[in-house]
């Protein structure tokens, strides 16, 4: 008879496996636990090509609930970013996949890839309420949006080649 694992032990195993999977991805520059706490991560996403965020690194803070994956992790941008789906004051991300559409089989790889894709193509239907003006700029003057997003990226994000 195999020993049964507690729910927190199963959650830790899932989180550890997902961290190992992310460490193999090219769009994730770094991922690791904070002070050895498997429920608290820092991850660094590389800005996708062909958009205002290219060549920059964006730091994310990730907090897992003790019953992950039943509840979605809380993911926030630590790096200030000019984007219609991200609050510059809190770093909060407005994505349905992180709220009402969360299901336990969504991996951190899928979630971070969704965030990366959102950087490429903002979803104005899910614009963060803190940045309604950013959504309007994106909708009405994409050149101005891209210029401002690039300026913010150069000001707040780390360059990909920086140590």
What does this protein look like?
- With 163 residues, the protein is of the alpha+beta class.
- The chain has one domain: Ubiquitin Conjugating Enzyme.
- 33% of the residues lie in helices and 19% in strands.
- It is built from four helices and five strands; from the N terminus they run αββββαααβ.
- Strands 1, 2, 3, 4 and 5 form a five-stranded antiparallel beta sheet that branches.
- The longest helix has 16 residues, at 7-22.
- The termini are far apart.
- The mean pLDDT is 90.
- This is UBC core domain-containing protein.
- InterPro entries: UBC, UBQ-conjugating_enzyme/RWD.
- It comes from Buddleja alternifolia.
Helix vs. strand class: alpha+beta
| Sheet of most strands | 5 strands, antiparallel
N-end to C-end Cα span: 50 Å
Mean pLDDT: 90
**Overall domain count:** 1
**What general form does the structure show?**
globular
Radius of gyration: 17 Å
Examine the secondary-structure arrangement and name the CATH architecture. Roll
Percent of residues in helices: 25-40%
CATH topology category name = Ubiquitin Conjugating Enzyme
Query: Please, how many helices?
Result: 4
Strand content: 15-25%
CATH class (first level) name? Alpha Beta
Q: Could you state the CATH homologous superfamily?
A: Ubiquitin Conjugating Enzyme
Number of strands: 5
Query: Which stretches are poorly predicted, pLDDT < 50 over at least 5 residues?
Result: none
| Order of SSEs | HEEEEHHHE
Domain UBC core: 10-158
Organism: Buddleja alternifolia
Pfam family, one: UQ_con
InterPro entries: UBC, UBQ-conjugating_enzyme/RWD
């Amino acid at each position: 008879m195999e020993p049964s694992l507690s729910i927190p032990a199963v959650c830790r195993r899932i989180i550890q496996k997902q961290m190992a999977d992310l460490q193999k991805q090219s769009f994730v520059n770094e991922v690791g636990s904070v002070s050895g706490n498997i429920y608290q991560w820092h991850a660094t996403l590389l800005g996708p090509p062909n958009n205002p965020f290219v060549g920059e690194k964006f730091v994310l803070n990730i907090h897992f609930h003790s019953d992950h994956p039943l509840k979605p992790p809380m993911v926030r941008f630590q790096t200030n970013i000019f984007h219609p789906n991200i609050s510059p004051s809190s770093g909060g991300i407005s994505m349905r996949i992180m709220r009402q559409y969360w299901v336990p089989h969504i991996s951190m790889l899928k979630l971070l890839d969704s965030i990366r894709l959102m950087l490429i193509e903002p979803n104005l239907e899910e614009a963060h309420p803190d940045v309604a003006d950013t959504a309007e700029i994106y909708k009405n003057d994409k050149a101005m949006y891209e210029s401002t997003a690039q300026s913010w990226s150069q000001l707040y994000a780390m360059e990909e080649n920086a140590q």
